[in-house]
Design a protein that fits this description.
- By secondary structure, the protein is mostly helical.
- It contains 3 helices and 4 strands.
- Helix 2 packs across helix 3.
- The longest helix has about 35 residues.
- It is elongated and about 75 Å long.
């Protein structure tokens, strides 16, 4: 039981649980904004009737297609995806790129087979070609 307790109280699990709860609350908020503000605005602009935009539907051979609800859900998804992209993915990509830029190179490409080999290697482990630089390529001593 102590192992299970340690598993549940690890930092990553707690952070993940908080993220899921906040994400669910945010999704609910976005769905409310879409249903209560955006789709009525779209319906007012397009000159729709008195029924709610989310309740728009059509029937074919007794099958009901609720396209209004689908459009509400699609708009909510696009808003959530845009917010996640702009507030999470873009900053994380920039942060990772910043750390990658400062990283010291530990490998180089073999000129013959284009495999990655350690920077200090004198012979390629894959094609066994000589990797020692020519006298003109050597850095000055």
């Amino acid at each position: 039981m102590s192992g299970f307790k340690k598993f549940l109280l690890r930092g990553n699990i707690v952070e993940l649980a908080v993220a899921v709860v906040i994400g669910a609350a945010f999704t609910g908020l976005v769905q409310a904004v879409v249903a209560d503000f955006i789709t009525p605005l779209v319906k007012a602009i397009t000159g729709g009737g008195a029924e709610a935009f989310g309740e728009l539907k059509f029937t074919i051979n007794g099958s009901v297609f609720a396209y209004g609800h689908f459009i509400n859900t699609l708009i909510a998804f696009l808003i959530v995806a845009a917010v996640v992209y702009w507030l999470v993915v873009t900053p994380m990509t920039r942060l990772v790129a910043m750390f990658e830029k400062d990283k010291v190179a530990t490998e180089k490409k073999c000129p013959e087979c284009l495999s990655d080999v350690p920077i200090e290697a004198r012979r390629c482990a894959f094609c066994t070609s000589d990797l020692t630089p020519a006298a003109s390529e050597r850095p000055p001593a």
